[in-house]
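Handout for the seminar on molecular recognition.
Each group receives one record of this type.
Step one: identify the two inputs.
Step two: read the structure output and locate the region that could contact LQZAQKY5.
Step three: write two sentences on what you found, then compare them with the reference statements printed after the record.
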Amino acid sequence: MNCGCADNPTTGLLDLWDARARLIDAAMPLMDSETLPLSRAVGRVLATPALAALDLPGEDNSAMDGYAMRLADLEQSQRQGDGLPVLIRVPAGAGVMSLPSDGCARIFTGAPVPQGADVVVPQERVHCDEQGRIHVTQEVTLGANIRRRGEEARHGDLVLAAGERLSPAAIGLLASHGIAEVVVKRRLRVALLSTGDELIEPGTPRAPGQVYNSNAAMLKALLAEQGCEVVDKGIIADTAEALRTALSQARDSADMVICTGGVSVGEEDHVRPVLDALGSLHFHGIALKPGKPFTFGTLHDASAADVPLIGLPGNPVASLVGWQLLTLPFVQGLQGRTPHRLERFTVKAGFAHRANRQRYECLRVVLEDAEHGPVALLAGGQGSHMLSAAAVAHGYLIIDPRSEVKKGDDVTYCPSSQFLT
Ligand SMILES: Nc1nc2c(c(=O)[nH]1)N[C@H]1C(S)=C(S)[C@@H](COP(=O)(O)OP(=O)(O)OC[C@H]3O[C@@H](n4cnc5c(N)ncnc54)[C@H](O)[C@@H]3O)O[C@H]1N2
Ligand code: MOO
């Protein structure tokens, strides 16, 4: 593990992308797992690969309601102009039948194609004469409208790799293979602390100077969305003693600790000194606005495994950005997931902006469609204490340090939706 040294000696700050890479490298996946029925497995992380127990589809089956036939029989009947008699009827759920020669089968979507048939013609493309014989009105191609046995997966194929988070579509996929239960990682247990004497919980009366604890509400929602179990340690007073006690208890109750506030440089900011006493600091201070005082370290425990600690800045937008860009990939690593690659693409700036000299800036923006593609507009006030813009933003513009953005310039956009998968 690296020390807390910044990689930019001039600014004293660690590069944003280096910090992200270090966090991804440092995440040691949880080893414990449990077996769950599919009905309780959505959002959980597969601990073992899911393999196909059979071919999918299980048989050649029809993609259309229509008529299954041999192309050779059809061509013969077309030369003679007498159409094909319907000899069998194959509904979905029927077993695999055999197609007698010189005729066709009435067939329905999903029904097994009878042996011998090599094409299915949709019913809209046939004409049925008075004798009930089928005439095909358009050209047909060998194999058309037949979904082939095993075309999606063969027995033994990998269906989903270990480390995949189970989306509703993934649950459906497993069910389509007949899989009823899966081995998943146990939920990551995250202890959450909010430091600050000014903090009170929403729903309680407020005195002047007090601030509602928005970080805990937001982080609980973010952690729940990632399938984590939150151990809520509440609001901790701004004293080193209170923080030391709270962090040691948090360490003993969770796989990871997240605290907010108290990571800056004032004498009321106790996270770093307490971390020095209880464990070790890996880094502090990132070239990121908002989010500069982001802190990463380890709480040591003589009798149990070490527990990682992430200290998010108190300013609510700094906490949010510090979660999305840095904490989330670390949490995903602990969960045994492959941390997602940050999705970014280029849009046009709809405003001018002079960037911070030392830090990447994450501007909260909304996208609007314009003639030559999407244009980013500021979603509202950009203060790191203002959640209003973050709450309605579609994503971030990530602006390089020292750059100057002019209206109409190409800029890097990072959609927020990616942080919710
Ligand atoms: N002299 C300096 N002062 C500050 C610096 C600096 O480099 N030099 N950095 C600034 C930056 S950047 C940030 S971000 C903040 C971060 O400070 P802390 O992490 O120590 O946070 P606090 O001081 O405890 O609080 C900052 C701000 O956020 C509000 N807050 C805190 N917790 C919550 C919460 N759970 N819910 C809602 N709001 C919260 C708090 O009331 C303060 O307004 O430091 C700058 N200062
Ligand atoms: O992280 Mo602070 O909010 O950059 O201002």
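Reference statements: The domain at 345-420 is CATH 2.40.340.10 (Beta-clip). The first strand starts at residue 33 and ends at 37.
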